[in-house]
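Lab meeting, item 3. Inverse folding demo.
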């Protein structure tokens, strides 16, 4: 019975991973959320093979408790960990590294720290908490959600100086994935950083400002990828594409950073 742990399972792409993976009754799927009481879309799946666990990924003890609970239910093993949870967006994402207002240097530093805390340290915490179980699993896969915005070529080709703390920390995350891949190559653990593409995970209709922001972003991305139609993927399509990539994963790909196409075509 393959077992999967997915962080950030309350909504968006994480929720869709749980939905698709739990469609097979053979899979045992653990969704980790910060607040089970508000993770109503996850609990509404109502599937017997879905288990909801609580942990903020910056909280090492909560992650260890979640891992202990998974171990109790799987007999001490885990096949696949999907690091999906991340700090995405935020109030200042339209600022660049040089346009935080005069006197607000501490706000920039705080944004960088908070993104690093969740997107880098939080993922390392998660991997370390589940490593003992993964070592005893059959598939031994750790899939980590990255973004095309972590690729320097995209940033340059698209002239995209905004979303800086997010891009910077996701680029660092790609290195985290490579470091683990290098460390655990001999043990047969496989680590992959994967971008889901541009995916519409909005919980409510966009404001006029958000629509304008999205149009601006599409125009920038089309500078980097002129054939892209500007349409965001649904979580359903993106997750299906990523699971196809994961299904074809082998040890020789460990440590790679790929898109939902399994290569460096980000859009
Ligand atoms: N959507 C896209 O276009 C896109 C593009 C490139 C990459 N990605 C990557 O894909 C992943 C999912 O994106 P998304 O659009 O689905 O994001 P989202 O809708 O913003 O959802 C983020 C998820 O992460 C959880 N989370 C945030 N901070 C956490 C923490 N400290 N501890 C535990 N959970 C935490 C959130 O939980 P709460 O519900 O408690 O807030 C939520 O479940 C992210 O890694 C993102 O960087 C997305």
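The presenter then showed the designed sequence:
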């Amino acid at each position: 019975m393959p077992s999967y742990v997915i962080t950030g399972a309350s909504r968006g792409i994480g929720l869709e991973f749980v939905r698709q993976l739990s469609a097979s009754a053979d899979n045992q799927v653990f969704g980790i959320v910060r607040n089970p009481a508000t993770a109503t879309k996850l609990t509404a799946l109502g599937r017997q093979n879905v288990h909801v666990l609580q942990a903020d990924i910056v909280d090492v003890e909560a992650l260890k408790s979640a891992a202990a609970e998974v171990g109790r239910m799987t007999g001490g093993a885990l096949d696949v960990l999907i690091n999906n949870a991340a700090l995405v967006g935020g109030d200042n994402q339209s600022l660049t590294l040089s346009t935080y207002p005069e006197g607000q240097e501490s706000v920039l530093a705080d944004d960088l720290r908070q993104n690093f805390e969740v997107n880098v340290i939080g993922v390392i915490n998660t991997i370390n908490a589940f490593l003992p179980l993964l070592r005893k699993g059959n598939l031994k896969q750790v899939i980590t959600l990255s973004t095309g915005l972590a690729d320097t070529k995209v940033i340059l080709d698209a002239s995209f100086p905004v979303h800086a703390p997010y891009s910077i920390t996701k680029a660092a995350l790609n290195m985290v994935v490579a470091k683990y891949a290098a460390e655990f190559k001999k043990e047969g653990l496989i680590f992959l950083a994967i971008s889901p593409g541009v995916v519409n995970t909005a919980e409510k209709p966009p404001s006029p400002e958000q629509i304008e922001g999205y149009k601006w972003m599409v125009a920038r991305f089309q500078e980097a990828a002129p054939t892209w139609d500007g349409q965001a993927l649904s979580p359903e399509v993106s997750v299906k594409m990523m699971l196809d990539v994961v299904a074809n994963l082998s040890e020789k790909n460990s440590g790679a950073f790929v898109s939902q196409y399994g290569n460096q075509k980000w859009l």
